[in-house]
Write a structure and sequence with these properties.
With 321 residues, the chain is mainly beta. The chain folds into two domains: 15-208, Sandwich (Jelly Rolls), CATH 2.60.120; 217-310, Jelly Rolls (Sandwich). It has helices at 3-7, 149-157, 189-193, 200-207, 211-217; strands spanning 10-11, 35-40, 52-54, 60-67, 72-77, 82-88, 91-95, 102-106, 111-114, 120-124, 130-137, 146-147, 160-162, 168-170, 208-209, 223-227, 232-233, 238-244, 249-253, 259-265, 268-272, 275-279, 284-287, 293-297, 304-310. 44% of the residues are buried.
């Protein structure tokens, strides 16, 4: 595969195209400055303005959220896996019907595998613009997002209405629901009662791993972060490994499904038969199935990356509580 072919499979951090109207809370004060990025796959954006960088199905979606300080993503629910790692900044993740069942603060490199069927939100509590990278289960990412009722009501008060077709309509732009399309119904009290609210101890203990803990266990081989035999034991439809300078190898390997490389720290040289490329933190590289490749740091200093590959497992519920 030529370098030109592979460059088309690399989304550089500096070339990411944001969407500021991706979700229903795009006009809601406190959430109206967030940027959504869809890197691989269609994601769960509700806006026709969302740019998709790589459309090829991988068995999962890769996205990102960029937010200035004190900006938050409102409470929502997914039926498939949602994994985040912090690329830049300091972030507070919270969950529950009203966002008060539990919370955890994550630093750069930390990762959280948020259990499905929970209302969750997140907020940049750092001092600068922050970025979190996301992996969503399945090629269709579950077909959308379920919003907490108060989020839908707040959005309507600021001009945005979500149709039952999963599309947003902005009354500030003169848009109205098309004929035959009704507003997205609010979840009933009975439906809300079926959504669990685990404690911080339950979520943090089972679904959060700290960057420096992963560095310590990624000795001579990569650490299995999420997988049937991972430090987070789960089968969300993909596996995630953590690679450091100490665990990187120049020996080429391949996978029978497309895989994705996402540097966290340092610069990485990716070699394959036919060429090589250099990745920096925030870059995302899709490696074709059955292509032999290797990844090693290209400069001295701290170096780490996350590696994602589909497993074919159903991207079903992860919460066992």
């Amino acid at each position: 595969m030529t370098p030109q072919d592979m460059e088309a499979r690399i989304v550089r951090y500096g070339e990411l195209q944001p969407c500021k109207t991706a979700f229903i809370d795009a006009h809601t004060p406190g959430s109206d400055q967030k940027e959504n990025f869809t890197i691989i796959g269609g994601g769960v954006s509700e806006s026709a303005d969302q740019h998709v960088h790589i459309t090829e199905p991988h068995g999962f979606n890769i996205g990102a959220a960029g937010q200035p300080p004190n900006c938050r993503n409102s409470l929502h629910n997914h039926r498939t896996a949602e994994v985040f790692f912090v690329l830049k900044g300091r972030w507070r993740f919270f969950w529950g019907r009203w966002g008060d069942a539990g919370e955890v603060v994550l630093e750069e490199g930390d990762i959280i595998n948020i259990p499905t069927n929970l209302f969750r939100g997140f907020e940049n509590i750092g001092t600068d613009y922050g970025m979190i990278m996301a992996v969503l289960g399945g090629d269709d990412a579950g077909g959308g997002v379920l919003w907490a009722p108060q989020v839908i009501e707040d959005a309507k008060a600021h001009g945005l209405v979500l149709g039952d077709n999963g599309k947003l309509y902005d009354s500030k732009k003169g848009q109205t629901l098309p004929e035959g399309v009704k507003p997205m119904p609010l979840l009933t009290d009975a439906e809300l009662a079926e959504i669990p609210e685990p404690s911080a101890k339950e979520v943090v203990g089972g679904y959060v791993r700290r960057y420096w803990d992963l560095v310590s266990i990624a000795g001579k081989k990569p650490a299995k972060v999420i997988g049937e035999n991972g430090v987070i034991r789960d089968k969300p439809g993909f596996e995630i490994d953590f690679i450091t300078r100490a665990s990187a190898s120049e020996e080429k390997h391949s996978h029978d499904k497309p895989s994705v490389l996402m540097p966290v720290k340092g610069h990485w040289r990716i070699d394959w038969d036919g060429g090589h490329a250099i990745l920096a933190p925030g870059d995302t590289m899709s490696v074709p199935e059955n292509l032999a490749h290797s990844a090693v740091p290209s400069m001295s200093g701290e170096a780490s990356m996350y590696h994602v590959v589909a497993t074919g497992d159903p991207a079903g519920a992860t919460w066992k509580g």
